[in-house]
Automatic annotation (TrEMBL):
Name of the protein this chain belongs to: Cytochrome P450
Region annotation Disordered: where it falls in the sequence: 1-25
InterPro entries: Cyt_P450_B (IPR002397), Cyt_P450_sf (IPR036396)
Originating species: Streptomyces sporangiiformans
Annotated CDD domains: CYP_unk (cd20623)
GO MF, one example: iron ion binding
Length: 427
């Protein structure tokens, strides 16, 4: 019997050196560096060739982990939470993690849906799923159109804009907080949007921890307000759900929902705009589109997916995966971008052909992005892209495509800025 956890027959052309039980193996690759920004697909291809489907890598501070690079292995890991689970307290490296470790915000255990397991996770994820199912997609589209128009109005007269900060980020954030029942125009909403941005992005130069505390306090107040006066929103639906989650649990899960929604949706919008503005198939007729916005959105999920790598899963017990001996408590990083471009599923090299939606950009299994969320993200991203193209039909990049800079992150794939110019318009 094949005792490889995946049961996969596939082996790399050059098998990895004698499978090690420790990712801190001498051939471990630092999971950082410029190549991950400029040409990630080539990096993943080389890693796969050199190490097979599961590569030993070093996270910040040379902390060892495994990067799962192939489609079957990522699918296997995400669909076997009995073997590869989410509670990071299992990690066998905690004694080597300093208090100021940069990845702590993502792997430090919190009592939220993200880190719960088994029946408790099903309960928490079930409440989120049903609350999100209550969002009327038509209404969401109308709200996003209004948010998009307001943001465009602010820069349309100037003939130029930086679309990451002036459009994609605030649009995704406002759409998410409005779904939660916060007023469109209030100082509270503006403060929350600002603090969420700071808490999620250490590059903002302000204190992310203090901002996170303010986010928590604001969400707590929102939950109290909705207990007093419920409405037709995600928070009120979570509060009235028959599972009867505590307010503390709901606050934790709401922060996860808003944070999980904002960054990837903003980057999805921006990566799609970049594709539309730089690729000849789209650039010829950007507003009418020979290739539709829908196709561009799907192509981005295959080729420039926002959540490039996701940390992660922790091995419940010793096992084998992709020819590697994984020890109980080892950390596995889900290589979602690498899996999407795995040559095993695209033998002819034509990645993402014909709008195929079987990518792993929303992950898979018990902890996948909860079912209605990808549909809602699609409404937000599609409305954002279509509105911009419709309002600014002659929009073009104001720098050369090769001068666009990807963020220095191996986790989120997005641009540092997307500067554009267009004929100034007044509404
Ligand atoms: C309305 C927008 C969105 C909402 C409300 C949302 C919500 C969530 C939530 C609550 C989780 C945690 C699930 C759990 O641990 O059980 C999650 C996970 C995730 N989401 Fe989303 N999300 C949104 C958009 C997106 C987008 C645009 C992407 C990427 C294209 C994305 C990719 C992911 C991934 C990769 C995970 C991790 C799954 C795992 O652990 O395997 N999400 N999302």
């Amino acid at each position: 019997m094949n005792d490889d956890a995946t049961g996969s027959d596939w082996r790399p052309a050059d098998p990895p050196p004698a499978a090690s039980g420790c990712p801190a193996h001498t051939d471990a690759v630092p999971l950082s560096g410029l190549e991950y920004q400029q040409s990630p697909a080539t990096v993943y291809q080389e890693l796969r060739r050199a190490h097979g489907p599961v590569a030993p890598v070093l996270l910040d501070g040379d902390v060892p982990a495994w990067l799962v690079l192939s489609y079957p292995e990522v699918s296997f890991v995400t669909s076997h939470d009995d073997l590869f689970a989410r509670d990071s307290r299992r990690w066998n490296q905690w004694e080597n993690i300093p208090a100021d470790w940069p990845l702590l915000p993502f792997v430090g255990y919190q009592p939220s849906v993200l880190f719960t397991e088994g029946a408790e996770h099903q309960r928490r994820a079930g409440v989120i799923t049903e609350a999100l199912e209550g969002v009327d997609q038509f209404e969401l589209g109308v709200n996003c159109r209004r948010i998009a128009d307001e943001l465009i109005d602010a820069f349309a007269g100037s003939g130029e804009a930086e679309l990451m900060s002036a459009y994609a980020h605030p649009l995704a954030m406002r759409a998410a907080v409005e779904m939660c029942g916060m007023a469109a125009h209030s100082t509270d909403t503006d403060d929350l949007v600002r603090d969420l941005r700071i808490s999620l992005d250490t590059a903002e130069g302000e204190d992310p921890v203090a901002a996170y505390v303010r986010v928590q306090e604001r969400i707590q107040r929102l939950v109290e307000d909705k207990r007093e006066g419920p409405g037709a929103d995600v928070v009120s639906r979570m509060l009235s759900h028959p599972e009867g989650l505590s307010d503390d649990a709901i606050v934790q899960d709401l922060i996860s929902v808003v944070a999980a929604a904002q960054q990837p949706t903003a980057n999805w919008i921006c990566n799609t705009l970049r594709l539309l503005l730089t690729d000849d198939r789209f650039a010829l007729n950007v507003s009418g589109g020979r290739v539709s916005v829908g196709e561009a959105l799907t192509e981005v999920l295959w080729l420039d997916t926002p959540t490039q790598n996701f940390i992660g899963r922790w091995a419940v017990r010793d096992t084998l995966l992709g020819g590697r001996r994984i020890k109980a408590g080892d950390c596995l990083v889900l290589g979602l971008a690498a899996a999407n471009t795995d040559p095993q599923i695209w033998p002819d090299g034509h990645v993402g052909a014909e709008g195929n939606g079987a990518h792993l950009s929303f992950s898979n299994g018990e902890h996948r992005c909860p079912y209605p969320a990808p549909l809602l993200a699609d409404v937000i991203a599609r409305t954002a892209v279509e509105t911009l193209m419709e309002r600014l039909p002659d929009v073009v990049l104001s720098v050369e495509p090769e001068d666009l800079v990807w963020r220095p992150s191996i986790w989120m794939r997005g641009l540092t800025s997307l500067p554009v110019e267009f004929t100034p318009t007044l509404r």
